[in-house]
Design a protein that fits this description.
The chain is mostly helical and 445 residues long. The chain has one domain: Growth Hormone, Chain: A (Up-down Bundle), CATH 1.20.1250. The protein is built from 19 helices and no strands. The chain has helices at residues 5-23, 35-57, 63-70, 76-91, 95-98, 104-123, 128-155, 162-190, 193-214, 226-234, 238-256, 259-267, 271-299, 301-321, 326-341, 344-354, 359-388, 393-411, 419-442. The longest helix has 30 residues, at 359-388. It is globular.
């Protein structure tokens, strides 16, 4: 008799729950004993993720004022996103080992302090080179905070509440898209990009104070070794799952990495309309993040990821073919935001179920791949925008969605694979490849 993979994941997680709770420090003193304490801690972690998300993405809407002030081209903002993302990606796998002797709350505080420092250096930067260096500092802070916050969020609640806890923590990233990026864009136009980055630094310091006050001290586990990373990647489905994250994020950042410039060039809209579209993108993303938990509970994590990829393919097809105008931009960015934000909480829950005893290692690898994807997508966006024009960017994104679909197929392969998941993902990959091929034959850049 075949076993549905999601049921197998849940059964495995249930069987190892008690063991993993003890090994990860759940039973140690300081873990919240009441739901209200856990809720306050999760909200503090979510604010920290908000500052991480805003720090990484604030420059998306600041490309024009930064370019005017520091005399750089329109693609330079994509490079700034990539510098942060690449710093995060390179540091994230090593952060658990480097900070492994610290309790996890202290590791969170180190990360937030570095995010604040990066914001201050960026706000005072006299040149583009110093601004890029500030992105390295902030990226290192993100690498210390991001994976640790997901691990702590999953450890301070009972096993059955972990998907919702992870959604709460990651909601900070969604709210960064709702408020952080549009507000940064507005401040950049109103009072200057330097004040926008100073505001990010201030938010990081506020998050640091709240995490210090509300998040319990969670003892560190054993620092991961090279053997631990090898063991995690040898877990069936783990490598393909984190590769899905890489390609999914690369696809989105081929456009989002230069979103302000893309919207103005592709849809012929002004700065005020660009800010409005970015705000709508984030607002709809909040809805997608909330629906991700419910859909995952109903369909399972693997099926929810497949639905995400199908929705992203549809949105990028629209970005490729839609006419100019504000209405088309709003509609397509809303569809993209909804399906894009379905992804994170179910995917992180899948990772924890795959390897509950080494969740910190696997979450760090996933976070690293997430930012490798952001870096690759943003670099491609910056390079291709000048060379091929805005209309070509969604075609490159569709190619990356096809690769994400293939990786997801590999992650659910096996005797108990879900045929609906396989079918949806396969159709998504084929549709994306077909669209890219048609675009290359019929459309000039």
């Amino acid at each position: 008799m075949r076993t549905h993979p999601e049921l197998s994941e849940r059964a495995q997680a249930s069987e190892t729950s008690e063991k993993s709770r003890q090994s990860d420090g759940l039973e140690q003193p300081g873990s919240p004993g009441r739901p209200d304490r856990a809720a306050a801690a999760l909200l503090a972690l979510s604010l920290g993720y908000f500052t991480l998300g805003t720090s990484s993405l604030a420059v998306v809407g600041l490309g024009t004022p930064i370019g005017h002030d520091l005399h750089t081209g329109p693609g330079s903002v994509g490079v700034l996103v990539s510098v942060f993302a690449l710093s995060f990606a390179l540091a994230a796998p090593f952060a658990p080992a480097l900070l492994g002797r610290l309790d996890r709350r202290t590791a969170l505080l180190v990360g937030l302090a570095l995010l604040a420092a990066g914001g201050v250096i960026g706000a005072l930067a006299p040149s583009y080179g110093v601004l890029a260096a500030s992105r390295v500092v902030a990226g290192l802070g993100g690498a210390a905070f991001g994976p640790a916050s997901s691990a702590v969020g999953s450890l301070i609640v009972p096993e059955e509440r972990r998907p919702r806890a992870l959604a709460t923590v990651f909601a900070g990233m969604t709210v960064a898209a709702v408020a952080g990026v549009p507000l940064s864009s507005y401040l950049g136009e109103a009072v200057g990009w330097r004040w926008a980055l100073a505001g990010v630094a201030g938010a990081s310091l506020l998050a640091l104070a709240l995490v210090a006050a509300l998040v319990p001290a969670v003892p560190a586990g054993e620092p991961p070794t090279t053997a631990a990373y090898r063991a995690v990647l040898a877990t069936p489905g783990a490598a393909a799952t984190v590769l899905t994250t890489l390609f999914c994020m690369a696809a989105q950042f081929t456009v989002y990495g230069v979103a302000g410039v893309f919207l103005a060039a592709r849809f012929a809209i002004g700065p005020g309309a660009v800010t409005g579209v970015l705000f709508a993108f984030g607002a709809v993303g909040v809805l997608g993040n909330a629906c991700g938990v419910r859909l995952s509970a109903r369909l399972g994590g693997a099926a929810t990821v497949a639905v995400t990829l199908a929705g992203l393919a549809a949105a990028f097809l629209g970005l490729l073919a839609a006419p100019r105008g504000l209405a088309a931009a709003l509609l397509l960015f809303a569809v993209w935001a909804f399906f894009g934000q379905l992804y994170q909480a179910p995917q992180q829950a899948r990772l924890i179920a795959l390897c509950p005893g080494r969740r910190g290692v696997l979450l760090a690898l996933n976070a690293s791949m997430l930012y490798v994807g952001i870096s690759l997508g943003s670099l491609l966006a910056g390079a291709l925008l000048s060379a091929l024009g805005a209309r070509a960017l969604p075609a490159v994104g569709l190619a990356a969605i096809a690769l994400a679909g293939l990786a997801h197929l590999l992650s659910v392969r096996g005797p108990g694979r879900s045929r609906p998941v396989t079918a949806v993902t396969a159709v998504t990959a084929v549709t994306a490849v077909t669209a890219v091929t048609a675009k290359s034959r019929t459309t000039q850049p």
